[in-house]
Specification:
Layout lengths: L14 H12 L4 E4 L1 H7 L8 E4 L3 H7 L3 E2 L7 E5 L8 E7 L1 E3 L11 E3 L3 H6 L9 E5 L2 E6 L4 H7 L1 E2 L5 H7 L2 H13 L2 E2 L1 H10 L8 H13 L3 H10 L8 H4 L14 H14 L4 H9 L4 H4 L1 E3 L4 E3 L3 H15 L4 H12 L12 H11 L4 H14 L7 H15 L12 H8 L5 H16 L6 H13 L2 H29 L4
Parallel strand pairs: 2-5, 10-11
Antiparallel strand pairs: 1-2, 1-8, 3-4, 4-5, 6-7, 8-9, 12-13
Helix pairs in contact: 6-8, 7-9, 7-10, 12-13, 12-18, 13-16, 15-16, 17-19, 18-19, 19-23, 21-22, 21-23
The structure holds adenosine-5'-triphosphate (ATP) and magnesium ion.
The site of adenosine-5'-triphosphate has 11 residues, from helix 7.
Protein backbone atom coordinates (compact mmCIF):
# COMPACT_ATOMS: atom_id res chain seq x y z
CA UNK A 1 0.00 0.00 0.00
CA UNK A 2 1.30 3.47 -0.69
CA UNK A 3 0.25 7.07 -0.93
CA UNK A 4 2.28 8.17 -3.90
CA UNK A 5 -0.67 9.49 -5.85
CA UNK A 6 -2.31 11.18 -2.91
CA UNK A 7 -3.22 14.46 -4.50
CA UNK A 8 -3.53 13.30 -8.11
CA UNK A 9 -6.56 14.61 -9.96
CA UNK A 10 -8.91 13.69 -7.16
CA UNK A 11 -11.25 16.39 -8.46
CA UNK A 12 -12.01 13.93 -11.27
CA UNK A 13 -13.88 11.73 -8.83
CA UNK A 14 -17.60 12.55 -8.60
CA UNK A 15 -19.08 13.29 -5.20
CA UNK A 16 -21.45 10.32 -5.55
CA UNK A 17 -18.41 8.02 -5.55
CA UNK A 18 -16.76 9.59 -2.52
CA UNK A 19 -20.10 9.69 -0.75
CA UNK A 20 -20.68 5.98 -1.37
CA UNK A 21 -17.25 5.19 0.06
CA UNK A 22 -17.86 7.49 3.07
CA UNK A 23 -21.22 5.90 3.88
CA UNK A 24 -19.77 2.38 3.73
CA UNK A 25 -16.79 3.35 5.90
CA UNK A 26 -18.91 5.16 8.50
CA UNK A 27 -20.88 1.94 8.82
CA UNK A 28 -17.60 0.12 9.59
CA UNK A 29 -16.90 -1.44 6.19
CA UNK A 30 -13.98 -1.10 3.80
CA UNK A 31 -14.62 0.42 0.37
CA UNK A 32 -12.38 1.06 -2.64
CA UNK A 33 -12.63 2.33 -6.19
CA UNK A 34 -11.40 -0.48 -8.38
CA UNK A 35 -11.00 -1.72 -11.96
CA UNK A 36 -11.27 0.42 -15.07
CA UNK A 37 -12.10 3.62 -13.18
CA UNK A 38 -8.99 3.44 -11.00
CA UNK A 39 -6.85 2.71 -14.06
CA UNK A 40 -8.36 5.62 -15.98
CA UNK A 41 -7.97 7.83 -12.92
CA UNK A 42 -4.20 7.24 -12.87
CA UNK A 43 -4.12 7.97 -16.58
CA UNK A 44 -5.96 11.25 -16.03
CA UNK A 45 -8.80 9.99 -18.24
CA UNK A 46 -12.48 10.27 -17.48
CA UNK A 47 -13.78 6.76 -16.68
CA UNK A 48 -16.93 5.42 -18.36
CA UNK A 49 -18.27 4.00 -15.13
CA UNK A 50 -17.34 3.88 -11.48
CA UNK A 51 -17.01 0.60 -9.62
CA UNK A 52 -16.63 0.26 -5.90
CA UNK A 53 -15.64 -2.91 -4.10
CA UNK A 54 -16.33 -3.57 -0.43
CA UNK A 55 -16.32 -6.19 2.32
CA UNK A 56 -20.00 -5.43 2.97
CA UNK A 57 -22.56 -8.00 1.76
CA UNK A 58 -25.23 -7.05 -0.80
CA UNK A 59 -27.77 -6.96 2.05
CA UNK A 60 -25.52 -4.58 4.05
CA UNK A 61 -25.18 -2.31 1.04
CA UNK A 62 -28.90 -2.24 0.27
CA UNK A 63 -29.60 -1.30 3.90
CA UNK A 64 -27.21 1.68 3.86
CA UNK A 65 -28.54 3.65 0.86
CA UNK A 66 -31.99 5.12 0.20
CA UNK A 67 -32.21 3.93 -3.42
CA UNK A 68 -30.57 0.76 -4.73
CA UNK A 69 -31.23 -2.16 -7.00
CA UNK A 70 -29.88 -5.66 -6.74
CA UNK A 71 -30.77 -8.31 -9.25
CA UNK A 72 -27.75 -10.26 -10.40
CA UNK A 73 -25.71 -13.27 -9.46
CA UNK A 74 -22.43 -11.39 -8.95
CA UNK A 75 -23.63 -9.58 -5.87
CA UNK A 76 -23.41 -6.15 -7.52
CA UNK A 77 -25.68 -3.52 -6.01
CA UNK A 78 -26.49 -0.38 -7.99
CA UNK A 79 -26.59 2.67 -5.73
CA UNK A 80 -28.84 5.25 -7.35
CA UNK A 81 -28.23 9.00 -7.09
CA UNK A 82 -30.27 11.79 -8.65
CA UNK A 83 -33.17 11.46 -10.97
CA UNK A 84 -33.68 10.27 -14.51
CA UNK A 85 -36.19 13.09 -15.00
CA UNK A 86 -33.69 15.94 -14.67
CA UNK A 87 -30.74 13.97 -16.06
CA UNK A 88 -28.87 13.91 -12.77
CA UNK A 89 -29.23 10.12 -12.57
CA UNK A 90 -26.01 8.38 -11.65
CA UNK A 91 -25.57 4.76 -10.70
CA UNK A 92 -22.55 3.65 -8.74
CA UNK A 93 -21.97 -0.09 -8.82
CA UNK A 94 -20.90 -1.59 -5.53
CA UNK A 95 -19.70 -5.20 -5.53
CA UNK A 96 -18.65 -7.26 -2.53
CA UNK A 97 -15.09 -8.61 -2.57
CA UNK A 98 -15.33 -11.92 -4.31
CA UNK A 99 -13.35 -14.91 -5.50
CA UNK A 100 -14.37 -16.59 -8.69
CA UNK A 101 -14.74 -20.36 -8.64
CA UNK A 102 -13.61 -22.85 -11.25
CA UNK A 103 -14.01 -21.88 -14.92
CA UNK A 104 -14.94 -25.33 -16.20
CA UNK A 105 -16.02 -24.04 -19.62
CA UNK A 106 -13.28 -21.40 -20.01
CA UNK A 107 -15.96 -18.71 -20.07
CA UNK A 108 -17.66 -17.84 -16.83
CA UNK A 109 -16.92 -18.89 -13.31
CA UNK A 110 -19.19 -21.70 -12.15
CA UNK A 111 -19.77 -19.91 -8.89
CA UNK A 112 -19.08 -16.64 -7.15
CA UNK A 113 -17.85 -16.71 -3.59
CA UNK A 114 -17.68 -13.61 -1.41
CA UNK A 115 -14.56 -12.99 0.63
CA UNK A 116 -13.54 -10.65 3.43
CA UNK A 117 -10.13 -9.89 1.99
CA UNK A 118 -9.54 -7.33 -0.75
CA UNK A 119 -6.40 -9.11 -1.93
CA UNK A 120 -8.54 -12.10 -2.99
CA UNK A 121 -10.73 -9.78 -5.03
CA UNK A 122 -7.76 -8.14 -6.74
CA UNK A 123 -6.16 -11.52 -7.50
CA UNK A 124 -9.11 -12.64 -9.64
CA UNK A 125 -8.88 -9.57 -11.90
CA UNK A 126 -7.44 -9.92 -15.40
CA UNK A 127 -4.59 -7.44 -15.74
CA UNK A 128 -2.38 -5.60 -13.27
CA UNK A 129 -3.56 -2.22 -14.54
CA UNK A 130 -7.13 -3.30 -13.73
CA UNK A 131 -6.26 -4.62 -10.30
CA UNK A 132 -5.51 -1.47 -8.32
CA UNK A 133 -7.82 -0.33 -5.54
CA UNK A 134 -7.87 3.20 -4.13
CA UNK A 135 -9.75 4.67 -1.28
CA UNK A 136 -10.65 8.35 -1.32
CA UNK A 137 -12.04 10.65 1.31
CA UNK A 138 -12.73 14.36 0.99
CA UNK A 139 -11.16 14.30 -2.45
CA UNK A 140 -7.88 12.91 -1.16
CA UNK A 141 -6.55 9.40 -1.73
CA UNK A 142 -6.18 7.78 1.68
CA UNK A 143 -5.05 4.33 0.66
CA UNK A 144 -3.84 2.55 -2.46
CA UNK A 145 -3.78 -1.24 -2.76
CA UNK A 146 -1.52 -2.19 -5.62
CA UNK A 147 -0.43 -5.77 -5.03
CA UNK A 148 0.76 -6.59 -8.56
CA UNK A 149 2.64 -3.49 -9.68
CA UNK A 150 -0.29 -2.03 -11.61
CA UNK A 151 0.76 1.58 -11.08
CA UNK A 152 4.20 0.87 -12.46
CA UNK A 153 2.66 -0.93 -15.44
CA UNK A 154 0.43 2.08 -16.09
CA UNK A 155 3.52 4.27 -16.03
CA UNK A 156 5.38 1.89 -18.35
CA UNK A 157 2.27 1.44 -20.51
CA UNK A 158 2.26 -2.33 -20.21
CA UNK A 159 -0.55 -4.91 -20.16
CA UNK A 160 0.36 -7.87 -18.01
CA UNK A 161 -1.84 -10.51 -16.44
CA UNK A 162 -2.27 -10.80 -12.71
CA UNK A 163 -0.54 -14.10 -11.95
CA UNK A 164 0.57 -16.74 -14.46
CA UNK A 165 -0.75 -15.73 -17.87
CA UNK A 166 -1.41 -19.24 -19.18
CA UNK A 167 -3.48 -20.13 -16.13
CA UNK A 168 -5.44 -16.89 -16.33
CA UNK A 169 -6.25 -17.42 -20.01
CA UNK A 170 -7.29 -21.00 -19.30
CA UNK A 171 -9.66 -19.74 -16.63
CA UNK A 172 -11.33 -17.28 -18.97
CA UNK A 173 -10.29 -17.12 -22.61
CA UNK A 174 -12.07 -13.81 -23.17
CA UNK A 175 -9.01 -12.28 -21.51
CA UNK A 176 -7.04 -13.15 -24.67
CA UNK A 177 -8.92 -10.56 -26.67
CA UNK A 178 -9.35 -8.20 -23.71
CA UNK A 179 -5.56 -7.84 -23.63
CA UNK A 180 -5.58 -6.63 -27.22
CA UNK A 181 -8.63 -4.43 -26.65
CA UNK A 182 -7.04 -2.71 -23.65
CA UNK A 183 -3.77 -2.24 -25.49
CA UNK A 184 -5.68 -0.64 -28.37
CA UNK A 185 -7.74 1.64 -26.15
CA UNK A 186 -4.84 2.68 -23.93
CA UNK A 187 -2.00 2.61 -26.45
CA UNK A 188 -0.16 0.12 -24.20
CA UNK A 189 2.03 -2.78 -25.28
CA UNK A 190 1.47 -6.34 -24.10
CA UNK A 191 4.23 -7.69 -21.91
CA UNK A 192 6.34 -10.43 -23.55
CA UNK A 193 5.35 -13.27 -21.25
CA UNK A 194 1.68 -12.38 -21.58
CA UNK A 195 2.06 -12.24 -25.37
CA UNK A 196 3.59 -15.68 -25.62
CA UNK A 197 0.83 -17.05 -23.43
CA UNK A 198 -1.78 -15.50 -25.71
CA UNK A 199 -0.16 -17.19 -28.70
CA UNK A 200 0.02 -20.50 -26.90
CA UNK A 201 -3.59 -20.37 -25.77
CA UNK A 202 -5.18 -18.55 -28.73
CA UNK A 203 -7.30 -21.57 -29.68
CA UNK A 204 -9.30 -21.25 -26.46
CA UNK A 205 -10.96 -18.15 -27.91
CA UNK A 206 -13.09 -20.37 -30.12
CA UNK A 207 -14.89 -21.59 -27.00
CA UNK A 208 -15.90 -18.14 -25.81
CA UNK A 209 -19.46 -16.95 -26.41
CA UNK A 210 -19.74 -14.87 -29.59
CA UNK A 211 -21.54 -12.07 -27.74
CA UNK A 212 -18.61 -11.54 -25.39
CA UNK A 213 -16.15 -11.64 -28.30
CA UNK A 214 -18.33 -9.20 -30.24
CA UNK A 215 -18.30 -6.68 -27.40
CA UNK A 216 -14.50 -6.68 -27.22
CA UNK A 217 -14.14 -6.64 -31.01
CA UNK A 218 -16.50 -3.64 -31.14
CA UNK A 219 -14.40 -1.79 -28.58
CA UNK A 220 -11.30 -2.54 -30.67
CA UNK A 221 -12.94 -1.07 -33.78
CA UNK A 222 -14.06 1.98 -31.82
CA UNK A 223 -10.57 2.62 -30.45
CA UNK A 224 -8.28 5.17 -32.06
CA UNK A 225 -5.94 2.60 -33.60
CA UNK A 226 -8.02 -0.36 -34.78
CA UNK A 227 -5.62 -1.12 -37.64
CA UNK A 228 -2.73 -1.84 -35.29
CA UNK A 229 -5.02 -3.81 -33.01
CA UNK A 230 -6.32 -6.06 -35.79
CA UNK A 231 -2.76 -6.64 -36.98
CA UNK A 232 -1.95 -7.62 -33.43
CA UNK A 233 -4.96 -9.98 -33.27
CA UNK A 234 -3.60 -11.57 -36.41
CA UNK A 235 -0.01 -11.90 -35.27
CA UNK A 236 -1.11 -13.33 -31.92
CA UNK A 237 -3.18 -15.96 -33.71
CA UNK A 238 -6.53 -14.64 -32.43
CA UNK A 239 -8.05 -13.22 -35.59
CA UNK A 240 -8.60 -16.71 -37.04
CA UNK A 241 -11.11 -17.28 -34.22
CA UNK A 242 -12.89 -13.98 -34.79
CA UNK A 243 -12.97 -13.11 -38.51
CA UNK A 244 -10.81 -15.63 -40.40
CA UNK A 245 -12.26 -14.25 -43.67
CA UNK A 246 -10.11 -11.14 -43.32
CA UNK A 247 -6.91 -13.17 -43.37
CA UNK A 248 -7.71 -14.51 -46.83
CA UNK A 249 -6.83 -11.05 -48.16
CA UNK A 250 -3.21 -11.35 -47.05
CA UNK A 251 -0.88 -11.30 -50.08
CA UNK A 252 -3.81 -11.05 -52.49
CA UNK A 253 -2.42 -8.51 -54.89
CA UNK A 254 -4.50 -6.04 -56.84
CA UNK A 255 -3.89 -3.84 -59.85
CA UNK A 256 -1.58 -0.90 -60.37
CA UNK A 257 -4.15 1.50 -58.95
CA UNK A 258 -3.62 -0.25 -55.61
CA UNK A 259 -0.33 -0.14 -53.79
CA UNK A 260 -1.48 -2.71 -51.23
CA UNK A 261 -2.79 -6.24 -50.96
CA UNK A 262 -6.46 -6.69 -50.07
CA UNK A 263 -5.72 -7.14 -46.36
CA UNK A 264 -3.68 -3.96 -46.02
CA UNK A 265 -6.18 -2.03 -48.11
CA UNK A 266 -9.14 -3.11 -45.94
CA UNK A 267 -7.29 -2.19 -42.74
CA UNK A 268 -6.26 1.21 -44.08
CA UNK A 269 -9.79 1.91 -45.27
CA UNK A 270 -11.11 1.10 -41.81
CA UNK A 271 -8.39 3.09 -40.07
CA UNK A 272 -9.43 6.17 -42.00
CA UNK A 273 -13.00 5.77 -40.72
CA UNK A 274 -11.53 5.66 -37.21
CA UNK A 275 -9.36 8.71 -37.88
CA UNK A 276 -12.54 10.52 -38.87
CA UNK A 277 -14.23 9.27 -35.68
CA UNK A 278 -17.02 7.80 -37.80
CA UNK A 279 -19.64 5.36 -36.51
CA UNK A 280 -19.13 1.67 -35.84
CA UNK A 281 -21.22 0.83 -38.93
CA UNK A 282 -18.88 2.81 -41.19
CA UNK A 283 -15.83 1.19 -39.63
CA UNK A 284 -17.33 -2.28 -40.12
CA UNK A 285 -18.34 -1.55 -43.71
CA UNK A 286 -14.90 -0.12 -44.43
CA UNK A 287 -13.26 -3.23 -42.97
CA UNK A 288 -15.44 -5.64 -44.93
CA UNK A 289 -16.08 -3.77 -48.18
CA UNK A 290 -13.59 -5.88 -50.16
CA UNK A 291 -13.94 -9.08 -48.12
CA UNK A 292 -14.86 -11.09 -51.25
CA UNK A 293 -12.02 -9.85 -53.42
CA UNK A 294 -9.88 -12.94 -52.83
CA UNK A 295 -12.52 -15.35 -54.14
CA UNK A 296 -13.74 -13.16 -57.02
CA UNK A 297 -10.31 -12.29 -58.40
CA UNK A 298 -9.71 -13.35 -62.03
CA UNK A 299 -6.87 -12.54 -64.38
CA UNK A 300 -7.90 -10.95 -67.63
CA UNK A 301 -5.57 -11.70 -70.56
CA UNK A 302 -6.94 -8.86 -72.66
CA UNK A 303 -6.17 -6.15 -70.16
CA UNK A 304 -3.35 -7.93 -68.36
CA UNK A 305 -5.11 -7.03 -65.13
CA UNK A 306 -7.05 -8.61 -62.31
CA UNK A 307 -10.79 -8.22 -62.21
CA UNK A 308 -13.02 -8.53 -59.16
CA UNK A 309 -16.43 -8.66 -60.79
CA UNK A 310 -19.30 -9.01 -58.37
CA UNK A 311 -17.10 -8.73 -55.28
CA UNK A 312 -19.54 -6.24 -53.76
CA UNK A 313 -22.46 -8.66 -54.17
CA UNK A 314 -20.59 -11.70 -52.84
CA UNK A 315 -19.00 -9.47 -50.21
CA UNK A 316 -22.28 -8.16 -48.89
CA UNK A 317 -23.51 -11.73 -48.37
CA UNK A 318 -20.30 -12.72 -46.66
CA UNK A 319 -20.43 -9.62 -44.47
CA UNK A 320 -23.95 -10.55 -43.42
CA UNK A 321 -22.91 -14.03 -42.36
CA UNK A 322 -19.88 -12.73 -40.45
CA UNK A 323 -21.94 -10.17 -38.55
CA UNK A 324 -24.69 -12.71 -37.84
CA UNK A 325 -22.13 -15.15 -36.54
CA UNK A 326 -20.80 -12.42 -34.22
CA UNK A 327 -24.38 -11.70 -33.07
CA UNK A 328 -24.43 -8.06 -34.07
CA UNK A 329 -27.87 -6.45 -33.80
CA UNK A 330 -30.00 -6.63 -36.96
CA UNK A 331 -30.03 -2.87 -37.43
CA UNK A 332 -26.25 -2.70 -37.57
CA UNK A 333 -26.04 -5.73 -39.88
CA UNK A 334 -28.55 -4.26 -42.34
CA UNK A 335 -26.76 -0.97 -42.64
CA UNK A 336 -23.28 -2.45 -42.99
CA UNK A 337 -24.45 -4.99 -45.58
CA UNK A 338 -26.09 -2.23 -47.61
CA UNK A 339 -22.95 -0.08 -47.57
CA UNK A 340 -20.81 -3.03 -48.69
CA UNK A 341 -23.32 -3.95 -51.40
CA UNK A 342 -23.28 -0.48 -52.98
CA UNK A 343 -19.75 0.66 -52.18
CA UNK A 344 -18.68 0.57 -55.85
CA UNK A 345 -21.14 3.24 -56.89
CA UNK A 346 -19.04 6.34 -56.36
CA UNK A 347 -15.94 4.61 -57.74
CA UNK A 348 -17.37 4.47 -61.25
CA UNK A 349 -16.95 8.18 -61.55
CA UNK A 350 -17.73 8.40 -65.25
CA UNK A 351 -21.15 6.80 -65.02
CA UNK A 352 -22.55 9.00 -62.29
CA UNK A 353 -25.53 10.96 -63.53
CA UNK A 354 -28.22 12.64 -61.55
CA UNK A 355 -30.67 9.85 -62.29
CA UNK A 356 -28.08 7.25 -61.24
CA UNK A 357 -27.71 9.14 -57.96
CA UNK A 358 -31.51 9.07 -57.57
CA UNK A 359 -31.54 5.31 -58.08
CA UNK A 360 -28.73 4.88 -55.56
CA UNK A 361 -30.66 6.92 -53.00
CA UNK A 362 -33.59 4.56 -53.60
CA UNK A 363 -31.24 1.60 -52.96
CA UNK A 364 -29.53 2.72 -49.79
CA UNK A 365 -32.14 5.15 -48.49
CA UNK A 366 -31.95 8.86 -47.77
CA UNK A 367 -30.51 8.35 -44.32
CA UNK A 368 -27.52 6.32 -45.46
CA UNK A 369 -26.52 7.96 -48.72
CA UNK A 370 -24.01 10.29 -47.04
CA UNK A 371 -22.41 7.32 -45.32
CA UNK A 372 -21.93 5.71 -48.72
CA UNK A 373 -19.94 8.81 -49.65
CA UNK A 374 -17.95 8.38 -46.45
CA UNK A 375 -17.14 4.79 -47.41
CA UNK A 376 -15.93 6.10 -50.75
CA UNK A 377 -13.67 8.59 -48.99
CA UNK A 378 -12.20 5.83 -46.80
CA UNK A 379 -11.83 3.45 -49.74
CA UNK A 380 -9.88 6.01 -51.71
CA UNK A 381 -7.56 6.79 -48.79
CA UNK A 382 -7.14 3.03 -48.28
CA UNK A 383 -5.59 2.62 -51.71
CA UNK A 384 -2.72 4.83 -50.60
CA UNK A 385 -3.58 7.32 -53.30
CA UNK A 386 -4.03 10.94 -52.42
CA UNK A 387 -7.43 12.19 -51.39
CA UNK A 388 -10.29 12.18 -53.83
CA UNK A 389 -10.03 15.11 -56.17
CA UNK A 390 -11.80 17.66 -54.06
CA UNK A 391 -13.78 18.80 -57.08
CA UNK A 392 -15.17 15.36 -57.78
CA UNK A 393 -16.18 14.83 -54.19
CA UNK A 394 -17.93 18.18 -54.09
CA UNK A 395 -19.68 17.29 -57.32
CA UNK A 396 -21.06 14.06 -55.80
CA UNK A 397 -22.26 15.92 -52.74
CA UNK A 398 -23.93 18.54 -54.87
CA UNK A 399 -25.67 15.87 -56.96
CA UNK A 400 -26.90 14.07 -53.87
CA UNK A 401 -28.31 17.25 -52.46
CA UNK A 402 -29.95 18.02 -55.76
CA UNK A 403 -31.48 14.54 -55.96
CA UNK A 404 -32.68 14.71 -52.36
CA UNK A 405 -34.57 17.98 -52.61
CA UNK A 406 -38.30 18.10 -53.27
CA UNK A 407 -38.78 19.72 -56.68
CA UNK A 408 -41.06 22.70 -57.03
CA UNK A 409 -44.31 21.56 -58.64
CA UNK A 410 -48.08 21.71 -58.43
CA UNK A 411 -47.81 18.80 -55.97
CA UNK A 412 -47.02 21.47 -53.36
CA UNK A 413 -50.51 22.98 -53.71
CA UNK A 414 -53.24 22.27 -51.19
CA UNK A 415 -55.54 21.41 -54.12
CA UNK A 416 -55.02 18.85 -56.88
CA UNK A 417 -56.58 18.14 -60.29
CA UNK A 418 -59.42 16.17 -58.77
CA UNK A 419 -60.28 19.07 -56.46
CA UNK A 420 -60.24 21.53 -59.38
CA UNK A 421 -62.74 19.34 -61.26
CA UNK A 422 -65.01 19.17 -58.21
CA UNK A 423 -64.80 22.89 -57.46
CA UNK A 424 -65.50 23.89 -61.09
CA UNK A 425 -67.80 20.94 -61.78
CA UNK A 426 -65.81 20.30 -64.98
CA UNK A 427 -64.54 17.22 -66.80
CA UNK A 428 -60.88 16.28 -67.39
CA UNK A 429 -59.15 18.56 -69.91
CA UNK A 430 -56.29 21.04 -70.38
CA UNK A 431 -58.01 23.70 -68.23
CA UNK A 432 -57.15 21.73 -65.11
CA UNK A 433 -53.39 21.91 -65.75
CA UNK A 434 -53.57 25.61 -66.68
CA UNK A 435 -55.48 26.37 -63.48
CA UNK A 436 -53.03 24.45 -61.28
CA UNK A 437 -50.05 26.20 -62.85
CA UNK A 438 -51.72 29.59 -62.51
CA UNK A 439 -52.38 28.86 -58.83
CA UNK A 440 -48.79 27.71 -58.40
CA UNK A 441 -47.45 31.02 -59.63
CA UNK A 442 -49.51 32.92 -57.07
CA UNK A 443 -48.48 30.60 -54.27
CA UNK A 444 -44.81 30.89 -55.23
CA UNK A 445 -45.15 34.68 -55.00
CA UNK A 446 -47.02 34.47 -51.71
CA UNK A 447 -46.91 31.13 -49.84
CA UNK A 448 -49.65 32.19 -47.38
CA UNK A 449 -52.15 31.85 -50.23
CA UNK A 450 -51.66 28.07 -50.17
CA UNK A 451 -54.89 27.34 -48.28
CA UNK A 452 -58.10 25.62 -49.39
CA UNK A 453 -60.33 28.65 -48.95
CA UNK A 454 -58.27 30.97 -51.10
CA UNK A 455 -57.50 28.32 -53.71
CA UNK A 456 -61.17 27.36 -54.01
CA UNK A 457 -62.25 30.97 -54.47
CA UNK A 458 -59.44 31.65 -56.94
CA UNK A 459 -60.15 28.45 -58.92
CA UNK A 460 -63.73 29.57 -59.50
CA UNK A 461 -62.48 32.97 -60.77
CA UNK A 462 -59.84 31.44 -63.05
CA UNK A 463 -62.30 29.04 -64.59
CA UNK A 464 -64.44 32.03 -65.62
CA UNK A 465 -61.62 33.36 -67.83
CA UNK A 466 -61.52 32.78 -71.60
CA UNK A 467 -59.42 29.71 -72.45
CA UNK A 468 -56.61 31.71 -74.02
CA UNK A 469 -56.17 33.95 -70.98
CA UNK A 470 -56.16 30.97 -68.61
CA UNK A 471 -53.67 29.16 -70.84
CA UNK A 472 -51.39 32.22 -70.71
CA UNK A 473 -51.55 32.38 -66.91
CA UNK A 474 -50.78 28.66 -66.76
CA UNK A 475 -47.73 29.13 -68.98
CA UNK A 476 -46.52 31.99 -66.78
CA UNK A 477 -46.78 29.65 -63.78
CA UNK A 478 -44.67 27.01 -65.49
CA UNK A 479 -42.01 29.57 -66.41
CA UNK A 480 -41.92 30.85 -62.86
CA UNK A 481 -41.52 27.28 -61.58
CA UNK A 482 -38.65 26.54 -64.00
CA UNK A 483 -36.91 29.76 -63.11
CA UNK A 484 -37.07 28.99 -59.38
CA UNK A 485 -36.04 25.37 -59.91
CA UNK A 486 -32.96 26.49 -61.80
CA UNK A 487 -32.01 29.04 -59.24
CA UNK A 488 -32.38 26.51 -56.38
CA UNK A 489 -30.12 24.08 -58.21
CA UNK A 490 -27.67 26.88 -58.89
CA UNK A 491 -27.68 27.64 -55.15
CA UNK A 492 -26.76 24.03 -54.34
CA UNK A 493 -23.96 24.04 -56.92
CA UNK A 494 -22.66 27.36 -55.66
CA UNK A 495 -22.69 26.03 -52.11
CA UNK A 496 -20.46 23.10 -53.20
CA UNK A 497 -18.40 25.25 -55.58
CA UNK A 498 -19.15 23.12 -58.63
CA UNK A 499 -20.60 23.93 -62.03
P1 LIG B 1 -13.97 -0.16 -19.55
O1 LIG B 1 -13.27 1.13 -19.44
O2 LIG B 1 -14.15 -0.62 -20.95
O3 LIG B 1 -15.22 -0.28 -18.73
P2 LIG B 1 -12.94 -1.95 -17.64
O4 LIG B 1 -11.54 -2.30 -17.27
O5 LIG B 1 -13.76 -1.23 -16.63
O6 LIG B 1 -12.89 -1.18 -18.98
P3 LIG B 1 -14.97 -3.93 -17.58
O7 LIG B 1 -15.30 -4.97 -18.58
O8 LIG B 1 -15.96 -2.87 -17.26
O9 LIG B 1 -13.62 -3.28 -18.06
O10 LIG B 1 -14.55 -4.69 -16.25
C1 LIG B 1 -14.36 -4.05 -14.99
C2 LIG B 1 -13.23 -4.71 -14.21
O11 LIG B 1 -13.56 -6.06 -13.93
C3 LIG B 1 -11.91 -4.78 -14.97
O12 LIG B 1 -11.16 -3.61 -14.80
C4 LIG B 1 -11.26 -5.98 -14.34
O13 LIG B 1 -10.68 -5.65 -13.11
C5 LIG B 1 -12.43 -6.91 -14.08
N1 LIG B 1 -12.68 -7.83 -15.19
C6 LIG B 1 -13.52 -7.64 -16.23
N2 LIG B 1 -13.54 -8.70 -17.05
C7 LIG B 1 -12.71 -9.61 -16.51
C8 LIG B 1 -12.33 -10.92 -16.87
N3 LIG B 1 -12.79 -11.51 -17.97
N4 LIG B 1 -11.46 -11.57 -16.05
C9 LIG B 1 -10.99 -10.97 -14.92
N5 LIG B 1 -11.31 -9.75 -14.55
C10 LIG B 1 -12.18 -9.06 -15.32
MG1 LIG C 1 -15.84 -0.66 -16.81
Amino acid sequence: MNNQCKYMQSELIPTQVTNTIDVLEKAGFEAYMVGGCTRDFFLGKKPKDWDITTNATPENIVALFPKTFYENTFGTVGVVYGDSQDETLKIIEVTPYRIEGVYSDHRRPDSVVFTKDISDDLKRRDFTVNAIAINVSNGVIKDTVDLFGGIKDIKDKVIRTVGKPEERFEEDALRLIRAVRLSAELGFTINAETRSAIMAKSGLLSGVSRERVRDEFTKILLSDKPKEAIELLHSLGLLQYIVPELEKGINVEQNQAHSFDVWEHCLRTMQHAADKKWLLEIRLAALFHDIAKPQTRRFSRETNQFTFYGHEVVGSRETESILERLKFPRKIIDKVVKLVRWHMFFSDTETITLSAVRRMIANVGKDDIWDLVNIRICDRIGTGRPKESPYRLRKYKSMIEEALRDPISVVMLKVDGKAIMEIGKINPGPKIGWTLNALLEEVLENPTLNNIEYLTKRTLELLQLPDNDLKKLGKQGEDKRDELENSNIEDIKRKHHVS
